[in-house]
Write a structure and sequence with these properties.
Number of strands: 5
Bound molecules: adenosine monophosphate
Shape: globular
CATH superfamily: HIT-like
Helix content: 25-40%
CATH topology: HIT family, subunit A
Strand content: 15-25%
Length: 139
Amino acid sequence: MTYDPANIFARIVRGELPCHKVYEDEATLAFMDIMPQADCHTLIVPKDAGTGIVDTPVAALQAAIATTQKVAAAVKKATGAPGVMVVQLNGAEAGQTVFHLHFHVIPRWEGLQLKFHARGMEDPEVLKANAARVRAALG
Ligand code: AMP
């Protein structure tokens, strides 16, 4: 699959579509997943991305994983979750639905069932509040 620069995350990176931003630096952007599998489910994208891990430049992957580490710590702090799951899907067959490389950070608690992947839009006010919680934890 070739990278489509009109994909949703590319448009968010360019500021053409809104997002609930939690972090940005010159190489990466992190924002709330609008169909979260758990509260404070956050996505991290490199700005210079391919569709997935194989076609994304190594420097962009390095920047994205460094931001993912920061965000994972902040999501744990913001939610008090004892566990955090980092997920990155490649290809429709693997469940990928947006073809601009991204990492998911999802807080986990024992016994808490995750919601379905990419289904069920969250209330924008909840996303706004959760983004503020993660931003505050990032310091
Ligand atoms: P994946 O299936 O790994 O490609 O994940 C794509 C994720 O993007 C899913 O978890 C969706 O809920 C999420 N998503 C789709 N559109 C948006 C959007 N406009 N803003 C934030 N998250 C989105």
